[in-house]
Design goal:
Blueprint: H1 4-15, E1 19-23, H2 27-44, E2 52-53, E3 58-59, E4 68-74, E5 85-93, H3 94-100, E6 109-110, H4 112-115, E7 121-129, H5 136-152, E8 157-165, H6 173-182, E9 192-193, H7 209-214, H8 218-225, E10 229-230, E11 235-237, E12 242-250, H9 256-266
Parallel strand pairs: 7-8
Antiparallel strand pairs: 1-4, 2-3, 4-5, 5-7, 6-9, 8-12, 10-12, 11-12
Amino acid sequence: MLTANKLRRLNMLQNAPQYQVSLAQSEQDRRAAQRLRYEVFVDELGGDGAGVDHANRLESDAFDSHADHLLLRDLRHSDGDTDGVVGVYRLMTAHHAASAGGFYSASEFDLTLLLNSGLALLELGRSCLHPSHRGGPALMALWQGLADYVAENEIDILFGTASFHGTDLVALQHPISNLHATYLAPETLRVTSHMPLKAPLLRSDQIDRKAAMRDTPALIKSYLKLGGKIGQGVFVDHAFNTTDVCLILDTDNMTPSTLNRAQRRMS
C-alpha cells in the first residue's frame, strides 16, 4: 500500500530533472541559450546594454556567432521559450577568438600573460543556470559536459570573468579582499584588470572571512573548490550591474574525483 509519504517521494522522482548536455547545433539552439541569458542577466539581475533585445527577450553579443555554446537541458520540461535549456556556457578556444578578433575577457582584463603562456586556453563566458536548477546536480552535469569538451580539445587552462551582483565596491570589500588575500593566481598567469581598483583591499587581519565567503557567489566558490584562482583587480560592468573578477583554472584539477568532491560540498 502506498502511504502519503511514499506517494510524495514517487511524485518527486517522477518530476526530477533529467539532464542532457550538448553543444548548440542550430540557430534555434543559440536563441534558446540567449533567452535563458535574458531571463537571468536581464530579468533577474537587472543587466542591460547594446546586446539586450527586450522585444524578443534575447541577450546576445558579437562573440556568440564565433563560439560554441554548451547547453544543459531538462528533458522532462522541454517546452517553453528556452526549449528545455536550463543552463549554458559559452566556450571560446583560441581558434574562436582569432575569428572573433579576441577573447571577450580582453575588454576587461589584460590577458597578455595567458596569451603568451603557450598553454591551450578555453574562455568560459555567459554561464548561467535557471533559478530552479541551481545547486549540485545541474552544475555537475554542466561540468561533466565541460570536462568532455576540455579533453576533446586538449585544453590546459580555463579562464573567464565571473561576477558579483552589484557595483558597490565598498559593499563587496570583504569578499573581494578575501579572494585577493587567498586565491591570487601565480604571477606567471596573473592577469590584471584594465580598471584601477577604486576601493582599497583590506589587510588579511581585517577581513571577515565568514561574511566574505557568504557574500561570494556560489559559482565563484565552486571554481575555488576545484582549485581556481583569480587575476589581480576587478572590473565594474555598469551595463550588466556586476563587478567582475577573472577566474583561472588548471584543467588538471577537473578529475572525476575532484568534481565529485565539489558536488558533495555543494549538496
